[in-house]
């Protein structure tokens, strides 16, 4: 009963607190922890310890044994509320982590809804909610009781703490240097490694489940990241590094309006522009080559959001920068920079490429991972939805790539 996994109950309150208040910043977390959560936890655990010392027979239900009989049902109600809050923390945390993984390029785009106007990290992702629901149903059918989940819980939490310390070292080393960060991380790693190693014997008792989920997510994320690199390389082979003047020299007919061509790279002529000119023998009178770039920072300030470069007369390149916790909004950006452009944004058409993958026998990635990447790519959220581009102003152009 008093396995090493039980000690992690002390820190789960801190985990739930962070997942709930993490959107609000550093100060709410500190106030909530030092003035509410930590005092309540200390009083509760000291009380249970005192009760067990005096009445060892109540060790299996020490929390409820501290209260008089009339308070049992209110405490059960309170415990139910705590379980709901903890579940909500897990759900919101899963949404936030998935959103950040998408913005960093480790997961395909999913349909999501933003429910926090003042905080772009507050999102609802229906597919993740469905996956969590199905996973919970499977857990109930497989383990049947909370006691059977003890091994899975202990191993998952101890592994999370170990990984968190390692990642914290990476972040701290950028601010404090490797020596100071290393000494601090080694101090915490002594505890984390001890707890994690003591839970390894729980693998056969349910600990295999979180390990299996972690391996599955690792395969999906690395497959998507690697597939994106291969796709970019394939498209890069067909993408010209010439200036747009090479297109204008083909006796193309200039059409009225502004053509905004979405590009994955911040240089060269995008394949969408080349294909459009090749098949229609026309080109918009005003051309904007627009690239959305996600930086490895939570947020990019508004004054550093846009970089405008005039390549040639009537042709400009616009690079839009976002942090991984920010939601891209292309129409809003264009409205903000309309005064900086040399022409008016009238009769605008967005030209978007629809990529179609082709599996080859190149030995750059295993066949099943290539097929997985193409499957994920086909089911990913469309660019126009992700970038909030009006569908009635979109012209899609087919683009093929090989893996």
From TrEMBL:
Domain K+ potassium transporter C-terminal: 256-402
Principal localisation: membrane
Localization, UniProt: Membrane
A family per Pfam: K_trans
GO cellular component: membrane
A GO MF label: symporter activity
Keyword Transmembrane helix: yes
Keywords: Cell membrane, Ion transport, Membrane, Potassium, Potassium transport, Symport, Transmembrane, Transmembrane helix, Transport
K+ potassium transporter integral membrane domain ranges (all copies): 8-240
Membrane topology designation: Multi-pass membrane protein
Transmembrane region(s): 6-26, 33-55, 75-102, 123-143, 149-171, 183-200, 206-225
Family: Belongs to the HAK/KUP transporter (TC 2.A.72) family.
Name of the protein described by the UniProt record: Potassium transporter Kup
